[in-house]
Amino acid sequence: MPVVHPSDAVAYEIHGARFVSYAHPRTGSKELCAWRGEIPAGTKAPLHTVNREEILHILEGELVITLDGRTERVGAGDTLIINPGATFGAENPTDRTAVTWVTTTIGLEAELADGTRIVAPWAN
Questions:
Q1: Partners of 35 in the β-ladder
Q2: Distances 44 to 5, 31, 36, 41, 119 between C-alpha atoms, Å
Q3: CA 40 from chain center: how many Å?
């Protein structure tokens, strides 16, 4: 039975945020991956276009989300559905870290406005 303990999770940092990866092929997942996102106060992730659907659930704190040109403040208990091809960005304008749980399919990649491609190691 694949069980991923907190001590087995792998953390990655990019654009000021921390991604703690639990479910992915190296931990036994065949189709899905999941991670905890930690977005510190004052962090602003650049807009990026994703190639896979993502489900992002806010566990703690608040974020200002921009999704396909629409901006909305979301908080603990809210869930976002980010479809493939959507352009997404997140900002934490508060004074405390926001914590999220994200699930997607294996193979998540993102493209920044300048054409830079990011292969998410926490989702592969």
A1: 21, 102
A2: 29, 29, 17, 9, 19
A3: 13
Per residue of the chain (124 residues), what is the pLDDT tens digit?
689 999 999 999 998 999 999 999 999 999 999 999 999 999 999 999 999 999 999 999 999 999 999 999 999 999 999 999 999 999 999 999 999 999 999 999 999 989 999 898 888 8
Structure tokens at 42: 């004052």
**One-letter amino acid identity for 38?**
E
Q: In whole angstroms, how far apart are CA 14 and each of 28, 39, 51, 76, 97?
A: 24, 10, 18, 22, 15
For residue 119, list its beta bridge partners. Answer: 109
One-letter amino acid at 13 equals: E
- pTM, whole model, 2 decimals? 0.92
d(CA 92, CA 53): 22
CB 50 within 8 A of CB 117: no
What span, in angstroms and rounded, lies between the C-alpha atoms of 100 and 45?
14
Cβ–Cβ under 8 Å, residues 18 and 31? no
- Amino acid in the structure at residue 23: A
Longest dimension (CA), the chain: 43
